[in-house]
Structure formats: structure tokens, C-alpha cells
Amino acid sequence: MNDIVGIVFDLQRGALHDGPGVRTVVFLKGCPLRCAWCHNPESQAFAPETGRSGKTYGWATTVEEVMAVVRRDARYYAESGGGLTVSGGEPTAQYMFCAALLAAAKAENIHTCLDTCGALDWPRLDALRPDVDVFLYDYKATDPARHRALTGIEPDLPFANLARLLEAGASVRLRCPLVPGMNDDAEHLGAIAELGRRWPKLAIELMPYHEAGEAKYGDLGRPRPELSTHVPGPAEIAAWLDSLHGAGAPQAALG
Ligand code: SF4
To answer: Which of its termini does the chain have fewer beta carbons within 10 Å around, N or C?
Structure first.
């Protein structure tokens, strides 16, 4: 299994924002979604790409080669409660590589997070559960038409899989990108609060819109989707949090 080849586009050691503790985050290339606000356009295509600058986005590597890097920080994981996070793109889109990487880490008692949009058949997601300590699960929009318009996919599968994970007792951090004027509507915030009320152990992380990554669209020769939005300020973010806390989801916090 450790000789399975995947395409990775970034590998970050010492990361602090993608799961608990100090982590190594492995970003797998390829994503079936096209979120309007995507900050990592180089993550979307499955094959390696070369930008106009000459920079290469993505390389082929094996599970063992990745694990050789992941192991280097084992001491920091132990001290901080950290470990490996497999992210993307959508990491489950390279299913065999993603599954083998999670299993390899678990075999070495390394804590694992899977950062996913949940857009895969339930049996395949369910099969990953034994090797995932925490799911970092995207929740992008509640209204189906808005979800389709903002991400390019129907929400049915991600929503159903989220419910199945929670009912199965999985540890989940709900990650909610909030883009002013696009998905910070009362219906969506209300649905996030409802999830928080129903599942008190569900962590909820708000991910306010930011503009990092814009230059990568230019380097890849792709137009950045036109967004009628703005970078939210502290007052706007505080209002989102107040609304969630007031609606019975005290666990909501900034991601
Ligand atoms: S799921 Fe993530 S990587 Fe894929 S398009 Fe959306 S923001 Fe980009």
C-alpha cells in the first residue's frame, strides 16, 4: 500500500489551523467542486500544472515518501496533540492514495484529520472512518440552488454524509466558509446553529472570506470568478458569531 502513487500540490509542516496541535498537512491535487471563492485554484485539476511563472503545481509521490516527511515531526505531534491532516483539493477524489496515507499514519499511531467536502459515496467515506480521528467537514451553503451555484455540485450527498458521520459517532469539526452577501444569509446561519444545537459535541469553525490566492489564478491563466462580496471586518464576523451563539450554538468559533 505504501507504494501507491498520488499527486500532491503542497506539504506544510508546523501547521496550526487544520486540526488540533502541530500538524503536517498534505494537500492532494484534484477537486470535483468549483467553489466561487476557492483560494487554491492550483488544487482543482488532477494533473500537475506549470504556471506562466514557470512554477510547477503538483508532483507525483508515494505514500511512503509522504510518510517519511510526516514522521519527522512525531515529537511535536506527541507534545501538542497534533498529527497528519490530509487535505486538498478534495483528498478523497484520489481515494486509494488518501486511504493508504491515512492508514499508514494510523499504523504508526499518528493522529489523523481528513479535510473533506463529503462529496463521495457513503460506503467509501465510511470505510475511511477507522483511520480518521477528526473529520474537518465543509459546510458551504444550505439552500440547494445556492449550493449548486456556489460550488458546482448538489448538496444532497455532502449533507447526507454529514448526518451519517454524526449519527455514527465520528468526531467532526464543521468548517463553514462565510462569504458576505453570498452565503451569510439567515437561513444558512440558522442551519449551522441547528446543527450545533442538535450535536453539542460538533465543533463549528467559521472561515471568513479572504483574498489570499488571487495571484495564482493569473499564474494559471484562469480568470478569477467575479464575486460581489468583500473581506468581512471584525464587526461583521462578531455579528455572525453572536447570531450563532444566540441561536444555541455556543461552540461556534473562528477557525
Ligand atoms: S472544495 Fe476546496 S479546493 Fe475544491 S473548489 Fe472548493 S474551495 Fe477549492
So the answer is: N
The answer to whether the beta carbons of residues 227 and 180 sit under 8 Å apart is: no
- pLDDT for the residue 46: 97
Domain ranges of the chain: 5-254
How many other CB atoms sit within 10 Å of the CB of residue 165? 22
Q: What is the CA radius of gyration of the chain?
A: 18
Mean pLDDT of 73-78: 97
Ligand 1 contacts CB of residue 41 (under 6 A): no
Give residue 196's pLDDT: 98
CA of residue 156 to ligand 1 center, whole Å: 17
What is the 81 CA–ligand 1 centroid distance (Å)?
27
Ligand 1 centroid from CA 33, angstroms: 6
Residue 107 has pLDDT above 90, yes or no: yes
Residue 214 has pLDDT above 90, yes or no: no
Res. 223: pLDDT tops 90: no
Does 87 sit in the ligand 1 pocket, CB within 6 Å?
no
Question: Taking residues 165-192, what's their average pLDDT?
Answer: 97
CA of 78 to the centre of ligand 1 (A): 30
The whole model's pTM is what? Answer: 0.97
The conformation of residue 51, written as its DSSP 8-state character, comes to -
- CB within 8 Å of 173: residues ≥ 6 apart: 19, 134, 135, 136, 137, 202, 203, 204, 205
Peptide bond between residue 233 and the one before it cis (omega within 30 degrees of 0) = no
Among candidate residues 56, 69, 61, 123, the one with its CA nearest the CA of residue 92: 123
Residue type, 191: A
